[in-house]
Amino acid sequence: MIDLGLLIVERRGVNGSYLGVNGSQTTYNGASGNPRSGYRMQSIIATPDLSSKFFVAVRQNLQAGAQATLFSSLSPAEVSAELEQQGVADP
């Protein structure tokens, strides 16, 4: 995992590419047998960009050494500023 700031991370797959959402919608049958559709998360991004960045809202640290900032301790302005810094338009 590559830490890019307050609550933004990038992840690399075993193939060396970055994890991102596949732009093609996939249809499948869910556990109940009903048709579902959605987008797959795959390691398909060669060069990191906005689509390979993930916002992480930490609710609880379960390891003493984890220094992740808890989402509940942040103001809306802090979250907006972080998202703007990463290139999100109108967070």
What are the main properties of this structure?
91 residues; mainly beta; two-stranded antiparallel sheet; 1 helix; 33% strand
Number of DSSP helices? Answer: 1
Shape: extended
Q: End-to-end span in angstroms?
A: 23 Å
Q: What's the alpha carbon Rg, rounded to whole Å?
A: 16 Å
Instruction: Give the proportion of residues in helices.
Output: 10-25%
Q: Strand sequence of the main sheet, in spatial order?
A: 1-2-5
Averaged pLDDT: 82
Summarize the structure in words.
With 91 residues, this protein is mainly beta. It has one domain (2-85). It is built from 1 helix and 5 strands; from the N terminus they run βββββα. The chain has one helix spanning 76-85; strands spanning 2-3, 8-10, 18-29, 35-45, 54-55. Strands 1-2-5 form a 3-stranded antiparallel β-sheet, with no helix packed on it. Strands 3-4 form a two-stranded antiparallel sheet. β1 and β2 (8-10) form a beta hairpin. The longest helix is centred in the last third of the chain and has 10 residues, at 76-85. The model has no long low-confidence stretch (mean pLDDT 82).
